[in-house]
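G.,

No rush on this.
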Amino acid sequence: MRVVMFGYQTWGHRTLQALLDSEHDVVTVVTHPKSEHVYEKIWSDSVADLAEEHGVPVLLRNRPDDDELFERLKDSDPDIIVANNWRTWIPPHIFGLPRHGTLNVHDSLLPKYAGFSPLIWALINGESEVGVTAHLMDEELDAGDIVLQRAVPVEPTDTATDLFHKTVDLIAPVTTEALGLIASGQTEFTRQDRSRASFFHKRSIEDSRIDWTWPAEDLQRLVRAQSAPYPSAYTFHKGKRLEVLAAVVSQGRYGGTPGRIFYREGDGVVIVAGADARTGRNHGLAITRVRTEEGRELTGTEYFTAMGGYLTTHP
């Protein structure tokens, strides 16, 4: 089939590489210009560079809504558009242009975690598995019929980076197998159960701010979800920003006020956590590694030389 590809960052790069390695003919690539957004500088393999290396015409757009782009796409005469990590809405006259419509490849197990940053949100929320879904695009974002879906388990110590590597390796087989089904003439696929759908926004630095009223289990997953190269989870101590690089749920249960620097346990220092911490029924978050505003990395016990005082949400 003749394929037009829409994509960006490493997800788009892997998709384009899979298409270039396949039996299909990539005739045009549409990608975004480089961005300085903190999350878009991560996993930033260039779709444009890969296309140009293989002699495929590249169109740079923030949004695919101009007449020139539409005419260029019509001239490309695609059988299908394949999209992965395209960051803005694709209008119906674009996604419906090819004979077989548009196949979107999304890094979640749809219908859950439509939208943005699905791996980070899934890890924070304690999901047992994540994955990649290839679905046919319609007017509602990430809501079209599922052509193919593959899942991988979330292990107890997985970080968002671990989940990225697990799922990015699914892109090539999911994309090529889904295209094979479409090329074979199959037209009936799995409708999404919209009663199970969830939709998440883009992440920002604000979303990495620690709220000590969260349960320790949730905070520990937040720290794992915000592992390098993502911006770290952070809190404030004595008015200064403190990044939490590693933490575990405490063995003991600790009561009091959320954010209280309370007790040395193992290699960490326990912070009281949970909205109902006053009951004494909660585990705390044992911080094992931090980074200061000055860039020094220390163990929890090296940094917290005395117990008492509070970690806060704001300076």
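When you get to it, here's the other one too:
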Amino acid sequence: MHSHPAPRLVATDLDGTALHRDGTVSPRTVAAFARVEESGATLVFVTGRPPRWMGGVASAVRHRGLAICANGALIYDLHTERIVESHLIAVDVLEEVVAQLRANVSDLVFSVEYEAGFAHESDFLLGGLDRRAGAAPRADSVTARPCAKLLALHPRMGADELHALVHDLVGHLVTATHSSSRGLIEMSAQGVTKATALAALAKEQGIDAAEVVAFGDMPNDLPMLSWAGTSYAVANAHPDVLAAVDHVTAANDEDGVAQVLEKLF
């Protein structure tokens, strides 16, 4: 018997939070997610991942539920594996952002996530998932068409330092955040965050923030964690996240999210 009713919506980040370090969903976590849905609550994956990285997760959870991808820019139906809503960065904004960053920060290289697929400049060092996927499309221009997410990579600067710089330069044009240990900044359309997408989805279902529990580990999760009625960080989270949440659970490799869900449901 719980002293408080179970949440009506569970929102969780994936990489570094619900997934193990190797990117897998443990059987314990799969079972905990099933308990959430069997109770009648809504389960939402809220991730910086693009839809093209969601196949393994969708299979592990038997293609149930919705995913908020690309930090809120894309709403992805795991059942149909289709994008059902998009919030893109317009071409004129992309052009201005890239021009401002190139003029003020040397050695930056860019990539872009589209609704379907991605492209990168030749010097952009791909992350693990993309490296394993093999050949990747290179772009003569990353500003040729609207995109869900613009990524800027610096070979030497740390993520926190680079984020502060990017925010100061183009924060009036896009919303910048980061979720990586390397100097990689992720930019969405102005005002688009994990929180804005989650709040809109919750409102459609008549769910208040107070009825939501959210889990995260990196700065791109902070808007969502601040919005949710109850927030958890995993023990391996970024210091800013650990300082901002209501509760801390065990690390991702110890199934910290599942441990909490087993108690709530």
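The CA atoms of residues 209 and 228 lie 5 Å apart. The longest strand covers residues 184-189.

Enjoy the weekend,
O.
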